[in-house]
Structure formats: structure tokens, C-alpha cells
Amino acid sequence: MIKKLSLISLFTLLPASYYFAQTTVFAYVKDQDGKPLERAEVDLAQSTDDVTADKIGYFQFTDLQPGHYLITVTKPNFDSKILEFDVIADEKRKDLGVITLNYNLGTDAGVVVIDDSASDTEDGGSAMQPTVGLLSSGRDAFQNVSAFELGAYWFRPRGVDNRFEDVVFNGVPMSKNDDGRIDFSNWGGLNDVMRYPYENVDNITPSEYTFGNLGGVAYYNTRASSYRKQTSLAYSFTNRSYMQRAMATYSSGITKNGWAFTFSGSRRWGDRAILDGVYQDAYAYFASVEKKFSDRHSINFTGFGSPTYRASNAPNTQEVYDIMGKNYNSYWGWQDGEKRNSRIRKVFEPMFMLTDYLKIGKNSNWINTVSYQIGSDARSRLDWFHGADPNPTYYRKLPSYGIYTEDEFRQNAQINWTSLYNANKLNLTDMNGDARGAVYTVVEDVNRDKTFNFASHFDTRLNDNWKLNINFNYQNLKSDNFRRVKDLLGANFANNLNAFDNDIRYNIDDPNVQVKEGDRTQYSYELTKNQYSLNISSEIDYNKWNVMASIFSSYSESQREGDFRSFRFQNNSKGKSAIYDALDSGIKGRITYKINGKNFIVYSGAFFSLAPTFNEIYINPRVVDYVTPGVKNQMINSNELSYILRGQILKLRLSGFYTTINNATEISRYYADVNNPTGASLSTLVNEAMTGVNKRYIGAELGFDVKITPTLNAIGVASVGEYKYTNNPNVATFDDINEFRGSNVWGKTNIKDYKVAGTPQKAFSLGLKYNSPKYWWVGASANYLMDQYLDLSALNKTPYMYTNPLNGDPYDGVTPELIQQITAQKKFDDQFMLNANAGKSFLLGKYRMGVSISVNNILNNRNYVTGGFEQGRNVSFPDALADAQRATPHFGPKLWYDRGTTFFTNVYLRF
């Protein structure tokens, strides 16, 4: 009796679930082509224990009690899907079948590239550089919006520019050694094969494949078998930097004998975009061939390149825009009935890579890549010898100077190619019949790099929850830099003489000063660099915690070798310089606390050094091997704290960040045309260096994606930051005539609390997107951009500007109020932008077709300044005050404006 009562009591106390048969629910996740989707995330609303699909797309939930359930299936670059189902009593297994996720048509590419033609100018000393978002269409709303909505207006998350972003192909870094930035034109037009990074980490989050920088890492794996088997054809029509684009891509998948092939090609062309005189003709090719020897070993060859021919557009002063309109471009003129642009960038730098993939044991992988990149980057411009400046916007030709009226300026607002040819024709011989050189020529500044890389990546699982990564990189670079004559414009030869310095020879070792088309002129030198770097990272995952740490060390040797011997710098211009070596190191870490399956708190921190680039090491490498005074490794300290919510209805990230950059070097190069009372001339090309620059970036980010209905989402982003200089750094200049001028001449530049330019420091976006179950979508976003500032010039912020060199005292009339008025940093007006996009896909048997259109700046707002810089000419108080008091300054800032309404349409066919 007692035993019976005990059994009854026991069953009474047991949970009710024991009375029912518990159920296992399972399914397979595949893409619309039937390929399994590995690592798709499956979120069960009634549980905090989410699951991830395995290599064949399989997932399951066990021990589910009877009831109604809802799951959300998501994967980056695919539209998410919500599925509801019921579990009934006595149902041991429930098969949900195949869950198909459709490719996300809302983006054209895994990266969004902002047209970078503005960076081709040499008119100013600006550090402005267009931003490139490294962000793919993943789950983070802030990443998506900052790349594809705000990024179209040069918004840079956290104020970080291209210099601090990393793109890596199979372990090989793609940043350029001259300025540290990424040249996306090396693979422009290869959207199909560069669409989705294999790994994409934002900001200072540690990467498995490299240490990274401040702005995140995009790691691309170009393995042929990693591309889904299909053929893709696409055509695009746009009015941005080109008009038309055609692409074709083929991927074979793994064949029976272990081969895989992926090929892609494209062309982008057009000459009727918004800005006058801008045209482009660019091709691109990609080939990846893999041989799989076994399940553990394969070798892959990759080759890609993008030969590009592109015309540039000029920045202008506000006076010029007011007269000519915001589509005006001074770089072109008519020649024989056709538009000819003087600023042409012609770049082709193909890369070839061989990658070995080896699986060691059950838990280890070893990937080794060797690569070689060769090619040239040539940028043309007009040059003149004892002639008038042919630039139509030269300040003496502007109506404010008083020579031309506005109507006369309009009549002469483009380059007069005929007059340049005529000037050379009249100068073919002198009165004695002796040959004379060209007055006007078109020259090209050429950079020819030969870069060898070796990259090795090893990863292993030390335990089920513990992963270790080791990365080693070696790079050898030889960079040939020179100016050559591209077009003599009807002349017989050009003179390799410095017209701004008493016609002295640019190369005193060569008595022949006559140069023909294709010959080197004015400067020629080679830069070499050897760099070794080691990175080790590890990640440990616990039930409630995830910890990742990464360390690195790097050593580099840089050297200049000049080909020309300068008259003024005979011992420091030709031959090899001393070696400049640099040692870097750093640490990164990330700690994630899992409150539950949907709520997380994440801290990330980084402290590391960054060696100077070629442009920062050598203040004027074209002439001399002098190292920039005070150049040092930058010291970077960055911290961020985030709260992340990954719910079915609401996905949200709220982050705060604090970053300091110390000991930075900023180089500006521009032409100065000023004489001071002592008679010292600055009428020459000036190389200006600020060293010991300290900056602070502080702010907060909010991104959310809320599902209003199963098909309607609201996406919002807010970025509030303050990015400013926090000290008064040293400033030095170097020019061919006056050589070095340091703190003894200029003093420190007073820029403390000036704002870092190049991006809106505050930005907001709110959008709606409707995804129809019938495979069409439409979306719109409202964007508000605030606190955009003009890039500063350092010299007019120094004591030299207001100090009379005749007596060392301030100029008469100098007051703190006037100095503040003259040197105040310009803040541009806040702007509102409206974007929209739409698309639809069709399934036609085995063919899938898609069409999409995106429109930016629907309201055609032409008042938004995307970038600009102060001209560095007014470096004395009398000149600066006189210019500031003019109704229209002679040397107002140079600006770029937004292009107004732009569109991009795309249609594709895949099978």
C-alpha cells in the first residue's frame, strides 16, 4: 500500500510534459537553386535555445511539447522567412520539409563603392577621400543602412576613413603602401564574384584572418568551388559615374574529376552622366580554377583585373558654382568637336594568386597563398613651361579678380585645346630657326607597383569550444614612380627644366633636356618595402560568455632610390636613401555576455600602433629622400560597448564608442602663390606636414529592424558623434626653393578642437521595406545628415599667419577676434535626402530573372557638400584679411557638391 501511494505521489509531482510524447521537429534550409545553406540561423520564438543549420542545411529541435510554434530562419544576404507549425500529442517526429530562402535583391553588391573621381585632383592639400563601405547585407541594420543609404552621401561610420579599413583576398591585404588606402578600382565591376565576403567584421571586432584596423575587415575567399553552380547575366543602366554595365558569370561547381571553374567579366561605360566632361570605359575579368585532390587537399588559382579609363571632375569655389552651376567641370574642353578631359586616370593592376587548402586531422586547416600583382596607375594633367596657367578657374580669370566679366568667364569656362596647340605651333622655333620646346603638354604621374605576397593561415580547434588562429604575412614591394610626357600637343619636344626655379635641370646628370612623348620628365624614383607580420587570435565559447583575443606584431623596412639628381639637393636626391624601419604591435579583444538567446552585451577594445605610409615617411619623395620631421607610428586606442537584441520582431544594436589616434602625420601638397614682406617666396609647390597630430572620436550608434507585419519592416539608424583634433601639432613645409621650414618659422598650428572633416558627424535614417510573398519588394528611406565640416589648411592657423617677419611682432590691426574670424572652420548646412528602391524576381522554369531600381536623392537636393578643403595660399594676415573681407574671396574653399538625383537599374538572368 505504501509503495502504491509513493508511486502515485511521484507521478503527481512530475511535470506534465512527462505524460505526453515529446517531439523532434526538423527541416532542411536551401537556397532558391536547391543548394544547402550552411550556418543559417533558426530562431524558435518559444525558446531561448536557437539552432544553426549544418553543412547540408539540416537543423532540428528536440523535446518539443504539443502546441503552436513560430520559427524565423535567417542568413546573411538572404531574405529571412517566418514559418508557423503545430505539434500535436503522440507525434514523435515532425518534418517541416525544405525551407527555401531567396537571395536578397536589395543590394547590388557586397560592398558599396562611392564614386572616387574627386580623389584624383591635385588642386588642394586636402586629406579628403571618399568612403567605401565594407558592409554586406547581413543582419545588422546599422551596417546595412550606413553602407547603402547613408554611404551614398559619404557618411563614414565613426568618422573612420578608407585608411583604417582592411580588405583581404585569401589572406593577402589589398591596402596600398603609398597612403594605406584601398583602391577598389583593382576589382571594380566584379560584383558577381566579390558580392559577399567570407568573413565580415565591423569596427574593432577581431578577425580570424588578420588583425584588422579601426574600420573593420572584409575577407574574400575566391575558391572556385565556393561559388554556387550557375550562369548569371546582368545589365545595368545608371547616371552615376558611368551609364551602362554588362556582366556575365559562370560557375561550374565541383565536377566528377575534382575540378571547379568560375569565370566572370564585365564592362562599364558611358559619357553622359550628370557631371560635365566625365566619362568612363572600364573592363573587368576574373578567373578561378580549383583542383580538388581529395577531401583534404585542393589548390586554387585566381586571376583578376579591371583595366579602367576614367575622366575626373574638379572641385570649384562657390563663385564658380554660382556662375556655372553645380554640374560644371573645369577639366575638359572641346577638341575637334569632341569633349576632351585633361584629367584622365588609367589604371590596370592585375593580381594572380595560388592558394593551397589543406585539412590536417579532424580539427585543423592550413591555407597558404602566394600572389603577385603588377601594373600601373597613371593620372594625367596639363603642364606648362613659361606659359599662362590654362586652368579656366585660375583665380586671376575669375570675375571677382576683375579681369573677366561673368559673361566673358562663361565664354572661356572650358579648356581651349585649340589655343594650346596654337601656342606650341608658334613656339616651334626661335627667331634664329633653332628648335624650341613645348609651352603646353599633357603629362602623366605614373605609379608602377610590383608586389609579391605570401600569406599563411592556420586554424585549429583545441576543444569543442576553443579555436586558435595563426596568420603570417610577408610582402615585398617595388614601386616605380615617375612623370612622363603623354601628349606634346603638336610640339616636337618638351624641356625637362624647372620653370619655377630659373630653368634649372630636373636631372643635372643628364645634359639632354629634350624629352619626347613617353619619356620621363621632372621626377623619377623607386620605393621599396619589405614587411613581415604575425597575428595570433583565439576564441573561447561558454554557455554565458564568449571571449576572443587577438595580438599582432609587424616589422617593415622602407627605402627610396632616386633616378634624377637635383641641382639643389645633389646629395639627397639620386641613389639609395637610408632604410626607414618600423616595428608595430597591438592587441584586440572582445567579450560577449549572453543574457539569453536573444540579448547580448558586447565589449570590444583595441590598442595598437600603425607604421607611417610612404606618403607620410618622405615629405617630398619626387625630389629628395628627406624623412618628414617628427614622423612616428600612430598610436590607436579604441573601445566600444554594445547591447544587442536579436528577437523575432525586433533586432537592435545600441553601441557607444571612444577612440583616440595619437602621433598621426597628415601630409598636404598644394601650390602656394604668396610673397611675404621679407621677399621670401612661396610661389611653388609646397609639401605641408602636420606631425604629432592627436584626434578623438566619440559617439553612439543605434540600429534597429522591427517587423511590423510578416512582410513589412521598419529600419532605423542614428549615429551621433564628435570627431575632433585634441592638440596643436607641429607643422613643417618643404619646397624646392626654400627647403625645410619647421617650427622655427611656422610654430605650431592652432587647430585644437577643430573638427575632423570628410563625413557628417551626425546622421539619421528611417526607412520602410515591404517584402511580398510573391517575390517583389519596395522600400524607401528618409536620411538626415548633420555637422559636415570643411577640411582645414594648417599654415593659416600658425603664428606665422599673424606675425610680421620684419620685426617678429603681430601685424598692425591683429586682434584675437579677427584671427578667429579668418581661421574659423566652416560648418555646412544640415541636409535631408530621400531614397527609394524596388525590385522583383521571377521563376521561369529553371531560369530566375530579377529586376531592381534604386534612386538616391529623389528631391534633387544640390546643396549638400560632399567634401571640400581650404586653399592654402593665404598664409599672411594682410592677405588673409583682405581676402576674407572681399564680397567674393579670391581663394575661397574648393568644394564638391552632391550630384542630385541618381538612379541605378539592374536586370539579371540566372540559370
TrEMBL record:
SUPFAM superfamilies: Carboxypeptidase regulatory domain-like, Porins. It comes from the Bacteria. Residues 1-21 form the signal peptide. Keywords: Cell outer membrane, Membrane, Signal. The keyword Heme does not apply. It is found in: Cell outer membrane. It holds the Pfam family CarboxypepD_reg. GO terms for cellular component: cell outer membrane. This is TonB-dependent receptor. It comes from Chryseobacterium populi.
